[in-house]
């Protein structure tokens, strides 16, 4: 993911901002990514002009490579034939079972709805003990998920280990 992000940033930096700006009124990377994904990928460090160049590059790429949607539509019947896990909503809200004190890089979160989530990133956040902390888990890009805890400013990347 880091290599992809760096490659896209390099491509965006090398392309003039005005080359595709008029062709790309519909694409906006800020609207296409969650805040957590935007921060995690390092895009928050770009200037407005660099973000516009990246938007233009993506729009032009999508215009020049329309086969991505055709390939995706051909893959759907094959995927539909195979049994799949129940889809995960774009957002889940629940409460942590027991005390919540933050995350340490390897934290497992047990939720009242029966799901168990595990921390993916190596971030560390420490807060005072909270009982019955409300959490919201949002879908990010590339099948990633980010958990926010009410009253905590940071979010943590997580993966579901028990449905």
Describe this entry's structure for a reader.
The chain has helices at 2-14, 29-32, 35-40, 48-64, 67-81, and strands at 91-95, 99-103, 108-110, 116-119, 125-131, 134-139, 145-149, 155-162. With 163 residues, the chain is an alpha+beta fold. The chain has two domains: 2-81, no CATH class; 91-162, no CATH class. The protein has a six-stranded antiparallel beta sheet with strand order 1-6-7-8-4-3, with no helix packed on it. The chain has a two-stranded antiparallel sheet with strand order 2-5. A hairpin with a 5-residue loop joins strand 6 (134-139) and strand 7 (145-149). Helix 1 crosses helix 4. The longest helix is centred in the middle third of the chain and has 17 residues, at 48-64. It is elongated and about 50 Å long.
Question: How are the SSEs placed, and which strands pair?
Answer:
Elements: H1 2-14, H2 29-32, H3 35-40, H4 48-64, H5 67-81, E1 91-95, E2 99-103, E3 108-110, E4 116-119, E5 125-131, E6 134-139, E7 145-149, E8 155-162
Antiparallel strand pairs: 1-6, 2-5, 3-4, 4-8, 6-7, 7-8
Helix pairs in contact: 1-4
